[in-house]
Structures are given as C-alpha cells and as structure tokens.
Amino acid sequence: MSRAEFVEGLRGGFTVAVASAPFAALFGALAVDNGMSLGELTLMSATVYAGASQMVGIELFGNNVQAWLIVASILAVNFRHVLYSAAIARYVRHFTPLQKFFTFFLLVDPQFAEMVKRGEEGKPVTFIWYLGFGIIIYVPWVLVSLLGGLLGSFIGDPKAIGLDILLPAYFLGIVLGFRNRDNFLPVAFVSAVASAIAYHYVGSPWHVSLGAAAGITLAALLPLPGALKPEPENEPHEV
Amino acid sequence: MEFDLQMVLVILASAVATYATRIGGYVLITTMKRIPPRMEAALNAVPAAVLTTIVAPAFFDGGWDSKLALVVALIVGLRVSHTWMLVAAWLVVMAWRRTIGF
C-alpha cells in the first residue's frame, strides 16, 4: 500500500520535474554568469530549493547588493510559503516531527498545489506519497542546476530559445487549476492588478507579497459562502 | 568546486530564511485552537492570489510576444492539460520571434 503510494507520488512529481528542468538548467547557467561557482550554485539549489527566489538571489549577487538585502529579498519572494504551511496544517498534523521536517523542507509551489488538490479530492495525503512526489522533483532540481552551470556557456541568450515564457506559462497552469474555488475570479484579478502596480512602483520581489496580500485581503472581506442564509448561532443577540 | 566564505554564508542564511517561511505558517496556525471562517476564506485564496502575482508582471511588462503567448496558453489551459499550455506558449513565442523579431 505505502509502496504504491510512493510510486504514485513519483509519477505525479515526474511531470513537475520535467517542467522545472529547464528552469534548473537556466538557474545554473545564469548563476555562473553572475559570478557563482559550480559548488555555490549547487549548494544554493540543495539548501534554498526555491526556484523564483534563487533567480532573484543570483540577480542580486551579480549586482553586488549587500548580504542582508539579498536574504531579505529571498524572504520576501518566499513569504508566500508561510501561507502554504498554514494551509496544509490540516493534512500534516499526524506526521511525526521528522516527517514534518522533510515535509516543510520540500514545500515548493507545485508540491503545495498538488497536496491541496489531493486532500480536497478526498485521497489519502500520506507522508510516503508526499516524499515520492517531492524527491523526484528535488534530486533532478539539484543535479540539473549543476548541469546548467556546466553547460552555461552553450545556452547563450535564453530568450533566443524561448525559455523565458515557460515559467509564467507554468505558473498560469497552476493558477487555472484553482479556478473552481469560491471567489477565484475576483481574487485572481485583484492580485494580478495589484502585483503589476507594485512591480512598477515598488519593484521586484515585493510585487509577490503585495499582490498576494491584496487578493487574500479581498477574499477575507468578501461575503462568506454560507453568509446568505445566516444560522441562529450567528446572531445570538436575537435569541 | 570552490567556495567563497561570504557567498556560502549568504546562501545558508537564505536557506534558513526560506525554511522559516515554510514552517512558520504551520507553527502559527497550530497555536490557534480554531480557525475563524474569514481566516479560512483567506487561506483558501492563497494559492490563486500568490501564483497570479508571479504570472502578472510577465504579462503586463512582457512584450507582445509574451502577452500573446500567455493568452493562447490560457485558452489552451481551459481545454487541455498543463503540458500543452507550455508547448503552446513556447510555440507562439518562437513563431513570433522567428517572424516578427524580439
């Protein structure tokens, strides 16, 4: 049973591993271009393990920005993970502390999206499934980063081979996967507009946190799905 | 494999910061006994809100090649699988750049 779940996880994560391989390679190539050594970029992929923020990081390394500012920027890009780990709490409560340690270490965007999807479909969200899904993404991510660093000089301009469009198209696909949720359209619309404005006037990477904050605030303020037919306990003053 | 001490320290500090975000929400929410409904509504909106902010600048700030590619990917994504979205976006961008230019 648990072996079947591990294999199921491996299968699910494989698609993500293939889709993220170009970005791992691109990260490696750009990291070398920005003055990182092969060892350093591999260490970064293995310990930070967060694509978008690794890209932000090397961009800042290349521009000689102060260390604390680089760490703060990476924190800003990854701040969404606070929300992810809060949102998956209901699925991981029964995990052992060691399992939780690895669960949170591997908690990247597609891993989160897939875990929530699986949980909402009513399928069992076991640690062994999660580990299979995570490890098949993690190991290639680290290895292909190194490979990208090695082959960096051959890639040339990523735009010439159309690599730059894959990351946004990939994230767009994940967004679409949530389109049946309550308030999806208003939330996505407000987040999109707010992040575009923040991108212009505040700058990257703050557009991620600011845009997301706008969408999430809207969701908290919009009428709740059950609010149309208030139940007696919601209005105790009338009793 | 060479390592610059300062670079390694920045990378490890970034790793610790990232790990803190990945466990922080869980720590916060387990200290609360019950999740208020509005907070739950907010949590449900997290994936769409966050991931949209990663796509939006590519659309608003990208060239017409990127804008068209993302619109086509959106239409394709509403009908078929995500892998085909990537293929569609890539084909549009490459076709645009080969014919019209960058």
UniProtKB/TrEMBL annotation, chain A:
<dbReference type="InterPro" id="IPR011606">
    <property type="entry name" value="Brnchd-chn_aa_trnsp_permease"/>
</dbReference>
<feature type="transmembrane region" description="Helical">
    <location>
        <begin position="208"/>
        <end position="228"/>
    </location>
</feature>
<dbReference type="Pfam" id="PF03591">
    <property type="entry name" value="AzlC"/>
</dbReference>
<feature type="transmembrane region" description="Helical">
    <location>
        <begin position="161"/>
        <end position="178"/>
    </location>
</feature>
<comment type="similarity">
    <text>Belongs to the AzlC family.</text>
</comment>
<feature type="transmembrane region" description="Helical">
    <location>
        <begin position="127"/>
        <end position="155"/>
    </location>
</feature>
<keyword id="KW-0813">Transport</keyword>
<dbReference type="GO" id="GO:1903785">
    <property type="term" value="P:L-valine transmembrane transport"/>
</dbReference>
<keyword id="KW-0472">Membrane</keyword>
<keyword id="KW-1003">Cell membrane</keyword>
<feature type="transmembrane region" description="Helical">
    <location>
        <begin position="65"/>
        <end position="83"/>
    </location>
</feature>
<feature type="transmembrane region" description="Helical">
    <location>
        <begin position="185"/>
        <end position="202"/>
    </location>
</feature>
<protein>
    <submittedName>
        <fullName>Branched-chain amino acid transporter AzlC-like protein</fullName>
    </submittedName>
</protein>
<feature type="transmembrane region" description="Helical">
    <location>
        <begin position="12"/>
        <end position="32"/>
    </location>
</feature>
<keyword id="KW-0812">Transmembrane</keyword>
<keyword id="KW-1133">Transmembrane helix</keyword>
<dbReference type="GO" id="GO:0005886">
    <property type="term" value="C:plasma membrane"/>
</dbReference>
UniProtKB/TrEMBL annotation, chain B:
<feature type="transmembrane region" description="Helical">
    <location>
        <begin position="72"/>
        <end position="96"/>
    </location>
</feature>
<dbReference type="InterPro" id="IPR008407">
    <property type="entry name" value="Brnchd-chn_aa_trnsp_AzlD"/>
</dbReference>
<feature type="transmembrane region" description="Helical">
    <location>
        <begin position="6"/>
        <end position="29"/>
    </location>
</feature>
<dbReference type="Pfam" id="PF05437">
    <property type="entry name" value="AzlD"/>
</dbReference>
<keyword id="KW-0812">Transmembrane</keyword>
<feature type="transmembrane region" description="Helical">
    <location>
        <begin position="41"/>
        <end position="60"/>
    </location>
</feature>
<protein>
    <submittedName>
        <fullName>Branched-chain amino acid transporter AzlD-like protein</fullName>
    </submittedName>
</protein>
<keyword id="KW-0472">Membrane</keyword>
<keyword id="KW-1133">Transmembrane helix</keyword>
